[in-house]
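Researcher: I'd like a structural prediction for the single chain below. Treat it as a standalone chain; there are no partners to consider.
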Amino acid sequence: MRSLHLEPYASAYELCDQMSSVRNRPIRVVEARLPVPGPMGVWISRDRDDVVVVQELATGSHREIGRA
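Model: Treating it as a single chain, here is the predicted structure.
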């Protein structure tokens, strides 16, 4: 994370933009109903893109990335 040179309170959008550049592929964010209790999100690395699955029931900062 330090190598991304993000500000301490960077948004989830900035993180996705930076990670997309570093990984040289697009990042797609989708919402899904994940098991509760369980993860708030899951990162899936694929050949041509990455997918971040965000818990659709998440609130607050856990949900911010789902609005990308």
